[in-house]
Amino acid sequence: MEGKALVDSNDEKAPIFKNLPPIAGALNWTNGLLERINEPMEKLSKLSQSIQDREEFKDVQKLYISLCKNLKEYNKQKVVHWEQGVEKHTEEQLDKYLLYRENSEMGFIRVNFDPVLVRLLREVKYLLLMDIEVPERAQLLFKKVNIYRT
């Protein structure tokens, strides 16, 4: 199976840690895969030139380069797809009232802070920890994270 098809076919089955949001978790998964394939390739690259000239080594090297390229492209696509949703979701959700009264007999007052914004704030936190650039709108929103939590 080709590298890109392998990554795409396992996207839904990616072992993402429960404490990570979806995008940061997927990026963490692919970065872990990259780390796992880098170490053996570095060891192979230190072998003698006669081994590196063999056809098998060249096949492994081509597969390694292809897989690295596909994993990096996958990461880029995940981030771009997430960025496209940032603008749309933040404006819609921030325009809503923060509190609302239920239409029940008791008339409870509820907090109207959307789970989409909570997930967005978590994504920004982890993406920044991973040194991934996030859109300016998301950064501005994240700067007020303590206000939103309060």
Care to describe what's here?
This protein is mainly α and 150 residues long. It has helices at residues 3-9, 22-45, 49-52, 55-94, 115-129, 136-143, 145-149; strands at 99-101, 109-111. α1 (3-9) runs parallel beside α4 and α5 (115-129) packs across α6. The chain starts with a helix and ends with a helix.
Query: Largest sheet, if any?
Result: 2 strands, antiparallel
Which residues form runs of ≥5 with pLDDT under 50?
none
Strand fraction equals under 5%
Major sheet strand order? 1-2
In short:
The chain has helices at residues 3-9, 22-45, 49-52, 55-94, 115-129, 136-143, 145-149; strands spanning 99-101, 109-111. It is mainly alpha-helical and 150 residues long.
Comma- or semicolon-separated keywords:
7 helices; elongated; 2 strands; 150 residues; two-stranded antiparallel sheet; mainly alpha
Record the SSE blueprint:
Blueprint (H helix, E strand, L loop, with lengths): L2 H7 L12 H24 L3 H4 L2 H40 L4 E3 L7 E3 L3 H15 L6 H8 L1 H5 L1
Antiparallel strand pairs: 1-2
